[in-house]
Design brief:
There is one protein chain. By secondary structure, the chain is an alpha+beta fold. The chain has 2 domains: 37-91, Ubiquitin-like (UB roll), CATH 3.10.20; 111-211, 2-Layer Sandwich (Translation Initiation Factor IF3). The chain is built from 5 helices and 10 strands; from the N terminus they run αββββαββαβαβαββ. The chain has helices spanning 2-22, 56-65, 90-112, 127-142, 158-173; strands at residues 24-25, 31-32, 41-45, 51-55, 69-74, 84-88, 115-122, 145-152, 177-185, 188-195. β3 and β4 form a beta hairpin. Keywords: Initiation factor, Protein biosynthesis. It comes from Diatraea saccharalis (sugarcane borer). Belongs to the IF-3 family.
C-alpha cells in the first residue's frame, strides 16, 4: 500500500515536471492552452471550387498527389487575413496566365495613351487630301494619341467609297497603330486607331506617307 502511494506520488511528480517543460501553468496549477500557429494557414479552393482551410504544406502535397497546379490567387483575404490558393489543371493554369497577360497588356496600353483626337472625313475627299489626313494620323499615333475616325457619306456609292478609304488608312497606319472597334452607323463608318507602345518594335518594309518632311503637324 505504501509502495503504491510512493509510486503514485513519484508518477505525479514526474507528470508535473513534464508538463512544466511542455506547458505553461497558471498560479493555481491549471494549464494555459497553447496558441495555435496559424502563420501557414491558407484558404484553399479546390478544382471543384470547394473551399477549405489548411496549411501550405498539405496543399502542396495535395497538388502533387492530384497532379494539379497550386496557384496563389490572392495575397491576403481582407476578411480572413489568410492567403488564398487554388488548385488548377494545366489547361486552367495556362488560360489564367493568358488572361493575366492580356489584362496587363491592356492596362499598359491605356496608361501609355496621352489623349484622343477626332478626325471626320467625307467620302468626297480627294486622294491627295486623304493622304494628308493619314500623315496627321501617323503623327498623332507616334505621339501616343488615340485617333477616332469618322468616315461619312451621303451618296448611294458612298458606303463603298468609305470602305475603300478605310482599307487605305489601315494599310498606311499599320506600322504605328492598330484598328479597333470598326462599325457602321447610319451614313458613317467609325473606327479607332490605337498607338503601339513607345518601346514596342514595329517594322514595315513599305514606305509610309509620314516620311515626307513637308507634312503639317497634328490637327
Amino acid at each position: 500500500m505504501i509502495i503504491n502511494k510512493l509510486l503514485g506520488a513519484f508518477g505525479y511528480k514526474r507528470l508535473l515536471q513534464c508538463r512544466t517543460l511542455t506547458s505553461r501553468l497558471t498560479a493555481d496549477g491549471k494549464v494555459i492552452p497553447k496558441k495555435k500557429n496559424l502563420e501557414n494557414r491558407i484558404t484553399l479552393i479546390g478544382a471543384d471550387n470547394s473551399v477549405s482551410i489548411t496549411d501550405l504544406r498539405n496543399a502542396e502535397t495535395l497538388s502533387l498527389r492530384r497532379e494539379l497546379k497550386l496557384v496563389k490567387i490572392q495575397d491576403v483575404d481582407s476578411k480572413t487575413r489568410r492567403p488564398v490558393y487554388k488548385l488548377m489543371s494545366n489547361t486552367e493554369y495556362h488560360e489564367e496566365e493568358l488572361e493575366k497577360r492580356k489584362e496587363k497588356q491592356e492596362a499598359r496600353q491605356k496608361t501609355s495613351i496621352k489623349g484622343q483626337k477626332l478626325m471626320s472625313i467625307s467620302s468626297k475627299i480627294g486622294e491627295h487630301d486623304l493622304m494628308t489626313f493619314i500623315k496627321k494620323m501617323l503623327k498623332l499615333l507616334e505621339k501616343q494619341y488615340e485617333v477616332k475616325v469618322v468616315l461619312s457619306y451621303d451618296s448611294p456609292d458612298g458606303e463603298q467609297l468609305c470602305e475603300k478609304m478605310f482599307t487605305i488608312i489601315e494599310k498606311n497606319t499599320k506600322s504605328s497603330g492598330k484598328v479597333v472597334q470598326k462599325r457602321s452607323k447610319g451614313t458613317n463608318l467609325r473606327f479607332q486607331l490605337l498607338p503601339f507602345r513607345e518601346n514596342s518594335t514595329q517594322t514595315d518594309t513599305e514606305p509610309q506617307p509620314n516620311q515626307n518632311g513637308n507634312d503639317k503637324g497634328p490637327l
